[in-house]
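ingest -> fold -> write
write: protein_1
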Amino acid sequence: MIKRILLIDDEKDFCFFTKSNLEATGNFTVTICFDSSEAVDLAKKLKPDLILLDVLMPGISGPDIAASLKDDPDTKNTPVVFLTAIITDKETKGGNVISGWPFVAKPVKINELIEVIKKYTK
């Protein structure tokens, strides 16, 4: 079954690279959202299997978007995985969690990202 991913990140090159690589596997369809103010409404509309969310977004921050998603009945059960360049895997001692949310450090390794997506979309 093909998993629907919503990628929320303001870095356009990163988004196009990630979308292309994930979709090339044949296991994912990826919708990109560059605008943090549209993220929650788009998530409600698309009902993705998982949301990849940049921590540092202009306007509304990633953690604030995640909190809004968690508070909304339509999206509260949608898994969210943070993407971040501000903390590394080593800084979390391999726990890969920020304030209870899983994350993948940038630069993202596609194989690692695929494993994380599979883990949270069973």
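write: protein_2
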Amino acid sequence: MKPSEPHWKLYALISGIYQKSRRLSEESLKTLRTTFPQFGVLLRLSFQGNVNQKELSEIMDTDTTTIMVICDSLEKKELLKRIKDPSDRRVNRLMLT
């Protein structure tokens, strides 16, 4: 594909819009002491409700280690709470505070 082709121009426009909106979002999230990935997790939890870390990693299409690190950070900020699942004590349910 040549850079002069319409598909390439469309890709360049979409990429520019994404980068600009992400940068503006990250600037706004600084006031909330939250990163873009952390905000994504908070947003998903507000819609999904009571899920465990493995379920959240599947919903977010990322690995469980990444979710664990994000949840650790959100828990330190007291934006998220881990609660032991009564039916399986090995599982942590995630709850917004």
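write: annotation protein_2
The mean pLDDT is 90.
The chain is about 60% helix and 20% strand.
pipeline exit 0
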